[in-house]
Amino acid sequence: MLWIRFLINHTNMKIKIADFPTFNQEWDRKETEEKTKKILRKIGKLQNKMYAQDKFSLLLVIQGTDASGKDGVTKGLVKYCNPVGIKIHYFKKPTEDEYAHDFLWRVHNVAPAKGELKFFIRSHYEDILVPSVEKYIPAEIVEKRYKLINDFEKQLEQNDTRILKFFMNVSREAQKERLMERIELKEKHWKHKDGDWDTREKWDQYMEVYEKIINNCDTVPWHIVPSDKNWQKLYAVAEVVLKALEDLDLKWPELVTEKFKTTK
Length: 264
Prior knowledge:
This protein is an alpha/beta fold. It has a single domain, classed as Rossmann fold (3-Layer(aba) Sandwich), CATH 3.40.50. It is 46% helix and 12% strand. Helix 2 crosses helix 10 (230-247). The longest helix is centred in the N-terminal third of the chain and has 25 residues, at 29-53. It is globular.
């Protein structure tokens, strides 16, 4: 998987987002889409088994700039899944009640239960990203959050929640095209926010903070995904999700009954 790199905790390697492609020219679209269909069907079967077993959970953290394709990749991944075992949480600006607690309170409150495949579209990383750029929280407070997040994710994993973290790596050009579509296409008007264009003006600042997050919040490694084309990002993420599910010790639960006796 040359498109992706994992952060290894014991290395001193410095990750630069600019070193990673936003589009992989070596992939054939038709071939990749055929592979993706097969992978998604396997994901659906394994996710259903995970839900039935009720022992493990899988948390997908989806981060990226506006219009990087976070919603789209989430929708694509669950095509063949059992909807009962799927949960999606979209992190927005904290409410007054959430502000009144520590920043991880609202995150821990929506962590996946046993058996769930859960998506965080944006996540606890917004509580580093946005205040770092917009500077409405003192820098010394934000700096402490890196370690707190590492400890939080370690705690989840020690309780049978596997975490996969994805940064949707989209180019400025592709982002602009998608933001313009939200203005030009009626069916996408609902996605448009004037503030997305304001945030775009601070692209370099946000990328700088993302790099710091990727390099410092590495207890759970990051996957940097080429996201200029929807078919590429779905394939890239689906491969990682399938491997994570295959690596779990998934088993169909045994029959529990007093009324019916079975013989083997």
